[in-house]
Amino acid sequence: MASTLGLVTPQQMHFGEALPLASGAALADYRLVYETYGTLNEARSNAVLVCHALNAGAHVAGLDANGQPGWWDNLVGPGKPLDTRRFFVIGVNNPGSCFGSTGPMHKNPASGRAWGADFPVVTVEDWVDAQARLVERLGIARLAAVIGGSLGGMQALAWTLRHPARVAHCIAVATAPSLSAQNIAFNEVARRAIVTDPDFHGGHFYEHGVVPRRGLRVARMIGHITYLSDDAMEAKFGRRTANGQRHGASAAASAEAGAGAATMADFAYTTQDIEFQIESYLRHQGDKFSEYFDANTYLLITRALDYFDPAREHGGDLKAAFAPARGKRFLLVSFTTDWRFAPARSREIVKALVDNDAAVSYAEIDAPHGHDAFLLDDARYHGVLRAYFHRIAAEVERV
Amino acid sequence: MASTLGLVTPQQMHFGEALPLASGAALADYRLVYETYGTLNEARSNAVLVCHALNAGAHVAGLDANGQPGWWDNLVGPGKPLDTRRFFVIGVNNPGSCFGSTGPMHKNPASGRAWGADFPVVTVEDWVDAQARLVERLGIARLAAVIGGSLGGMQALAWTLRHPARVAHCIAVATAPSLSAQNIAFNEVARRAIVTDPDFHGGHFYEHGVVPRRGLRVARMIGHITYLSDDAMEAKFGRRTANGQRHGASAAASAEAGAGAATMADFAYTTQDIEFQIESYLRHQGDKFSEYFDANTYLLITRALDYFDPAREHGGDLKAAFAPARGKRFLLVSFTTDWRFAPARSREIVKALVDNDAAVSYAEIDAPHGHDAFLLDDARYHGVLRAYFHRIAAEVERV
């Protein structure tokens, strides 16, 4: 569906009061970039905050100055599941990110040089606190809902724990109550690839006029493997060779190769050049990502993921952790083929919420796309969100 | 179980006749390192060939000069499942590897410098042909069995297709009829990490006195994630922090942290240093591997894995590919938690064999360790192998 919001202009807000962080450090002075869609009603009761995941920012919906649609444009807009004719929707970029808000590429006032790897380590809870200040400045005492997918889902959950009086509904999609050892392992390999790239320069590569592209590429390739389901990758690429393109074979020959009917003679027998289409896809994704994503941001965001673990302060007891959520209303959504944040992880959250007598709806969507499904336009998934937002809108409009 | 074979001395054999390769190139002149255990009987009918996987060589069992046990020492030896009192067991290192046989670190006679990235690309079938020559030179017309796990299992299968008259039994453990797109993807990321390491020097790093350690470390870390099951990693490491060691906390505090009862205050809030034990484990594995494994070998061996696909020449028809296996006898073993080479992949092979009226035994072992299980000493797994080899020994000794 084409964007129906049209051009959207990002806004920014400066915060002069220090933001205390979980690490004990503080962000003395910072700027948040945000976008809004729709109109805040007179009662200021129809605001929905959208939290972003790793590779996204405040540009949730509509078209930016380059004509690029927002990352959740299929979900947010007039007539869409999160309907901007009824809701006032806020997208905000988190501090430490590389999409406009204060981050490691900006000047550290203490040193006069770019923060680089010295940017304070931020957590999901720190982000939520920063978002809460923005919401307050926008004159919104209580959000109708907060929504996010993946890392954004963790932020949505954290809202109900840190600012329970300031949010009515929480919608957490394709998320988890904490990363598993395997999740942390993938993050760590990606970080090592970046940090050991000689162009990283201890995080101060900005001053050297270089970017640790090799590390970013590898990090993104690893990420992409975990975003797709094994089956989706098999269906999309299988063992199809890239040689149709490479040797300029006829369309018929390419189609045959695509059908797996090729022979060993189709290979170039090379360890460094591309033989299979999946390799071409991953390299392309890695190259694209390394052109625009900040290496220090990658480290910060993956660490925020690693740290998130509300049960930690409660001896591992997730029910105890979710005690502040009592009385809140939740929608949890997971996808059957998501092996990064599997449905079982969402069910852990559902159980902890139900044990706290929260009102919980849970949808486990049978979708083939793996973790990526939370960004895609699946009819059942969007149907669930549409119905849930319809209910919230009715509540808001009834008051 | 301690090794009962004692000191084993590797042997080597030189081959002056060129080995034609699948790529169309040839290996003009090469050396194979091998080891043998047990005694070849008079009829020369009790020989079992063991094929190695990525990170292994000819040293299958017993102790080497450094006192290191072989990589399958728990399986091979007097009284062990593959009993060297009854069988003459051969371990051989494949060309292109870095454990003694001719490989990319040796001199290319054509250039006078180390082969480096110019070493010919080798396939599973090329290795099997090289092994067949060794077996012939040892005076063995027909192997009682060929056995291998993972990539070694592919070699065992390829023996029955390329040299069906020269092998009676095939035992293929934790293997697949071809890599999936996801398998290839993991290999490709690892290769990119190595190739883009500035110390790789296009594969000619030997001349520069350096090793692409950064790339090898990342490659090995990725590998380790795929060798372990998600559950095994969770059980072994979970979200346990490394700070017990780091801050020299008391044993009691460490145990408490280990139990997940730690708080956020246990973290150092760092993106580059270790926070979780899983990170420490992966870094250690990466460091160790980068000390001894050859980068060009890593590229060659992962490519051999990528290429293996006996169905390819038969329009994707695995049954047609296994037609030469008619009359052979097979044992296939898979492990329930192996997500690298899942049981479903072994079942594909079983079906193709059964469709060819081969005699197939298949054991799906409920083991928690993921792909690594094929190297471990699981009672049910070893019980299956012991029984199967007992049957082969009885056949051999009856004749």
**Number of H- or I-type helical stretches of chain A:** 12
User: Approximately how much helix is present in the residues of chain A?
Assistant: 25-40%
Mean pLDDT of chain A: 93
Instruction: Determine the structural class of chain A based on helices, strands and strand pairing.
Output: alpha/beta
How can the largest sheet of chain A be summarized? 8 strands, mixed
- Largest binding interface between chains: A-B, 72 and 71 residues
**Quaternary structure classification:** homodimer
Order of helices and strands of chain A: EEEEEEEEHEHEHHHHHHHHEHEH
- Beta-strand percentage range of chain A: 5-15%
Shape of chain A: globular
Total strands of chain A: 12
* Spatial separation of the terminal alpha carbons of chain A: 32 Å
Rg on CA atoms of chain A, Å: 22 Å
Describe the structure.
The structure is a homodimer of 399-residue chains. By secondary structure, the first copy, chain A, is of the alpha/beta class. The first copy, chain A, has helices at residues 124-137, 151-162, 181-195, 213-227, 230-236, 243-246, 251-258, 277-292, 295-307, 318-321, 343-355, 379-398; strands at 11-15, 19-20, 26-27, 30-37, 47-51, 76-77, 82-83, 88-92, 143-149, 167-173, 329-335, 359-365. Chain A has an eight-stranded mixed sheet with strand order 1-4-8-5-9-10-11-12, sandwiched between helices. In chain A, 54% of the residues are buried. The model of chain A is unreliable at 245-261 (pLDDT under 50).
Provide the fold topology.
The structure is a homodimer of 399-residue chains.
Chain A: E1 11-15, E2 19-20, E3 26-27, E4 30-37, E5 47-51, E6 76-77, E7 82-83, E8 88-92, H1 124-137, E9 143-149, H2 151-162, E10 167-173, H3 181-195, H4 213-227, H5 230-236, H6 243-246, H7 251-258, H8 277-292, H9 295-307, H10 318-321, E11 329-335, H11 343-355, E12 359-365, H12 379-398
Parallel strand pairs in A: 5-8, 5-9, 6-7, 9-10, 10-11, 11-12
Antiparallel strand pairs in A: 1-4, 2-3, 4-8
